[in-house]
Amino acid sequence: MNLSPHDTSAWPGLQNYAEREAALFAPFAFFSSQSAGRKVKEVDRPYRGPFQRDRDRILHCSAYRRLSGKMQVFTGDRGDYHRNRLTHTIEVACIARTIGRALRLNEDLIEALTLLHDLGHPPFGHAGEDALAECLAADGGFSHNRHALTIVEELEERYPQFPGLNLTREVLDGQTTRIDKRAATKVGLLEVQVVETSDWLTYSAHDVDDAVKLGLVTIPELAAIPLVRETLGEIRSACGELPPDVLRKTLVHELIDRQVSDVLLSTGPALANAAPKSAADVILRGLRIVVSPAMARHQKELQSFLYDRVYRHADLMRVRRDAQLQIRRLFEALVKSPRKMPERFLRRIESVGIRRAVGEYIAGMTDRFCVQQFEELGQ
What we know:
Layout: H1 17-24, H2 50-59, H3 62-66, H4 85-102, H5 107-116, H6 125-135, H7 144-155, H8 169-176, H9 190-213, H10 219-222, H11 226-239, H12 244-274, H13 279-285, H14 293-311, H15 314-336, H16 343-352, H17 354-363, H18 367-378
Helix pairs in contact: 2-5, 4-5, 4-9, 5-8, 5-9, 6-15, 6-17, 9-12, 9-14, 11-12, 15-17, 15-18, 16-17
């Protein structure tokens, strides 16, 4: 049988994505049929929605694979247990899909947004980002959130018909809201909000896990935080005293479960009471993914603890200073000798200038490759 990939009626017995969404989504979810499309128009497939295609394009791009070589908080010199940017991204996607499914939102859009959200991170995490922002201060600065858009709109080379990945307008707009979160006043799609909520929830719990495993803090020290203390109390009531390694793992997944449950128990009834009729209605009425006041207070306390005791730990600050020095020296070395860059970044100089092109090249490096290039060029 010669089945056309473009004609829904030619696929007997198969459910197309529009039928699936109509059966599963809440009225206030963002339906794929509402998409504003892509910059370069493409033929759709009835069995594969536009956000599924976005997700897969991100998943298969080079920048996504390089996330496995980029630190989240801890570098490879502390072993290989801890998270990197890729594992963090996957974990955020798992939690975001859970929340999205329970609220009957568009999981494909949520997953595409999640896989994109950290794609623009340079080597050495936020330390690397700060160093590049300093190097490019007179040239527009550097933001990993903005750079993610540059990657998917310009730098990735996978298709002969267009530069970048030609993602849908909704995924690009969702990433755009991350560039300056403090200046963002407009409420976005619930799917975009789910990613923001899941990002914080994921890294806070998993940074606790990594910090304890690597010996930067102890569980008794963490117990000074009310959220952790309450969670430990519940664990001991249910399980008794556990071996330290088992207690750490149990604490982490219980912290996640408590926060996800709070999001759903706070947001679900609020959406039911508001009864928005569409995704546009959500935006018009300023409806948000929320947590309870008590959980918001707990999360703030946990965030403050992590900042003071983990992210500003002396060992991490040393790594941060060394990494920033390497990036600054490598940046200046490449500005002086741009021919050391691959040909495609030399071509970028014509459109964005030498300093921006060098910044983009460094931002794409893994931690290991950055160190290697510094040892060859930057010293």
